[in-house]
Amino acid sequence: MRRLAALAGALALAALALALHATDAELATPVDLAEVAYVGSGACRRCHEERHASWYRTYHRTMTQEASDEAVLGDFDDAALHYLGWDLRFTRDSDGSFSIRAQSAASDTVTWRVDRTVGSHRVQQYLARDGDEWLRLPVAWHVEEARWFPMNGAFLTPDPPAPASRADLERHVTRWNDNCVFCHNVAPRPGRTPDGRFRTEVAELGIACEACHGPGAEHVARNASPLRRYALHLSDRDDPSLVTPAELDASRASDVCGRCHGQRKTDDLDGVLRDGDPFLPGDDLSRHSEPLWADTTINGGAPFEARFWADDTPRLTAYEYQGWLLSPCGRDPSFGCGSCHAMHEGSPEGQLKPSARGDGACTSCHAMEEDHARHPETTVACVDCHMPRVVYGVIDAHRSHRVEIPRPREQAAARRPDACTLCHVGESRAWADAALADRWGGPRATTFDGDGAHPDDDTTEPTARTPLDDVFGGDPIVRALTADALGRAALGEPAMIRAVLLDVMRHDPYPAVRRLAFRALRRTLDPAPAWDAFDPTGSAALRETQCDTLAAGLALAPLDAERVAALRAQASSDAIWIGE
Is 288 part of any domain? Predict the structure, then answer.
């Protein structure tokens, strides 16, 4: 009996050894993920409960959702929005669905049924189905402000004439199938047919597990075996049945992010619109597409030029990958998106690793002397100087992902804001350049070749201007970013800042700029006024009345009306139609 038991044990051990050997061989064999099916995030949760939970808390998960009580953030309890002659109502229908009804003063009426939501962090947008297409609707919900606004107020576009036509109201309605679908879902396949119709499919709405790890059917099937899981645990091999971005080199891992966080161009547009983007995690992204730049041409034109500063630094969100490519840090093979960001760590706000908060992202590589910032008058973080807020997107000012040294002279020539005067808002670029020379040594610049200088007015020379000039005389992105900076500035005269912001709120022709100016003004006041104290998309008369009310009791510095008018006249020739 004992001999039989021993023999059985020996046979079992031999079988285990053979199985482990076979599993080891399987782990050494690559898997072609292009041939693997998708299974959805629910299949991942069964084995990866904690990782699923940390992903579930992110805004990636809620990037696209079916409209439901849980997903919809906007007020559909018979809420109202009045916009340039249009009355919009947001209601729940008897079947529980969500509807938006718009009626003009001329009795032009349109009704949309909300089928899906897009976003949940700063702004939530809505999709309505029209046959085989989904259309992004012309109004959205501002999460922080808890109110509705027209999408005309999100893009850097001027007010349409009042009363607004239906075409004006729907100016930014866009088709989801061949636009938003690519970056906001897992494995999107637009399915455009030869006759221009769409049969759009996605593996999963929102940005879920398989967007970063690749299709998971083979991984799920293979790991149904406890023997394989045990062998994998004991092995030093990676699992070939899926991709773990943290185990890729920095460049390939950053490609996973860059597919969506770096707008791109492909040579096979028809194929992508039919079958989707062939890129999979772990691929070399450059094999499938290339980043858009200022000099990228389409049909002989350069339609993306306005999305970059003159020194090629991106000035819109969704170009973070390009910023990284331009950075000295990006040329370090060990540095990539994952050096600072992680899907499963820290707060969903920015997805920053805990170790990357504060100055941690920089000091992990750069040893700093105690007085590196040379700013005894205020607290300055590394990113304030080296990643300034010179990027516009989603009605906000964002940090540049081009890590750089402040150079006010060159940045003035590029007609872009610089880190120094975004904080020292009453000072000029010439002052900033001289201050840098005094604090850091080096040549002191006294003359500049400012691009687009106006010799008949020294105040329009780029290096002579301050942010208090730029907020009136810059192009729409400069004005938006500068308005935001005025509300963050630690070094500036509050009475002048408030007077400038109130003037922007009254008179700037771009509602997005007015909205950022109001938010900046709120930062300077304690207590901050309620959001409904100012309507950035309201009529000029309404804004005037609201600004008068907000100004009551505030100490305001007088403005030079003639100079402000001259700066605005210059800005009017710089109008652009971009940004969301």
Answer: no
Residue 501 within any structural domain of the chain: yes
State phi, psi for 578 to the nearest 5 degrees: -135, 170
Over residues 294-350, the pLDDT tens digits come to: 999 998 999 999 999 999 999 999 999 999 999 998 888 899 999 999 999 989 999
Question: Phi and psi (nearest 5°) for 91?
Answer: -135, 160
The two most distant CA atoms of the chain are separated, in Å, by 108
Specify the number of domains making up the chain.
2
Tokens of 248: 């890729």
User: Does residue 333 lie in a domain region?
Assistant: no
Mean pLDDT, residues 497-507 taken together:
97
Give the residue from 185, 212, 231 where a domain finishes: 185
b vs e for 19-43, b when ≥16 Cβ sit within 10 Å of the residue's Cβ? ebeebeebbeeebebeebebbebeb
Please say whether the beta carbons of 413 and 451 come within 8 A. yes
Residue 3 counted as domain residue? no
Residue in the structure block whose two tokens are 């998309």: 537
Residue-range definition of the domain harbouring residue 90: 64-185
End-to-end CA distance of the chain: 78
CA atoms of 273 and 182, how far apart (whole Å): 10
User: How many Cβ atoms sit within 10 Å of the Cβ of residue 486?
Assistant: 26
Calculated CA dihedral for residues 211, 214, 219, 220, nearest 10 degrees: 30
Task: Provide the strand spans (E) within 5-158.
Answer: 64-66, 79-83, 86-92, 98-104, 109-114, 116-118, 123-130, 133-136, 139-142, 147-150
DSSP annotation string for 115-163? -EEE--SSEEEEEEEETTEEEE-SEEEETTTTEEEEGGGTTB-PPPPSS
DSSP H helical ranges for 441-475:
467-473
Please give the model's pTM, rounded to 2 decimal places: 0.92
Give 535: exposed, middle or buried? Use CB within 10 Å, 0-12, 13-18, 19+: buried
Q: Decide which of 185, 211, 226 is a domain's last residue.
A: 185
- Are 116 and 180 in contact, with CB atoms under 8 Å apart? no
Q: For residue 371, what are the contacts with CB-CB under 8 A and spacing of at least 6?
A: none
Relative orientation angle of helices 511-523 and 494-507, to the nearest 10 degrees: 150
